[in-house]
Structure prediction request, 136 residues.
Amino acid sequence: MKNLYYAWWADSIIRIKHYNPQMKDWKIRVFNLNTFLNSLNLCVIVIWLKYLDILTIPVLKIDFFPGDLLDKALIYMIEFASPFIILNYFLIFHKDKYKKIISQYEGEKMNIAFPYAIISVALFAITVIAYAVFWD
Prediction:
C-alpha cells in the first residue's frame, strides 16, 4: 500500500494543475491550502485531548499587536501551522520531491484531496461549535 500522505499530496497537485493549467503560483497555493488543512486537524486533536483530560498543552501568550485578533492569528500560526510548514516543505517541495511523488501516483484514479478538505473543515467547525456551546 502506498503512503496515504503522499497520495493526498499527489492528488492535490494533480488536481490544481489540471483545473488551473495557466496558474504560475500553484506550488504556494497548494502548499498553503494543505498546510492550513493539516493545522485545522491538529487543532481539532488538541481540543479533543484537552476536553477528554488526556493532555493539556499550555497556551502561548503573545501581546505584540494592538487588539486581540492579530495576536491570536500569530499564536495559531506558531502553534498549529509552523510544524506543518516545516514538515510539508521538507517532505514534498525540498529538492523538487513533488515531481517524484506525482510520477508515482499519476496513473492512479484518486479522489482524496477534495473529500479530505471538506471533512477537515467540517470536523473543525463541529468541534469549535461544540467547544463554544458545551465546554469551557
Summary: The chain has five helices and no strands. The two ends are 42 Å apart (CA to CA).
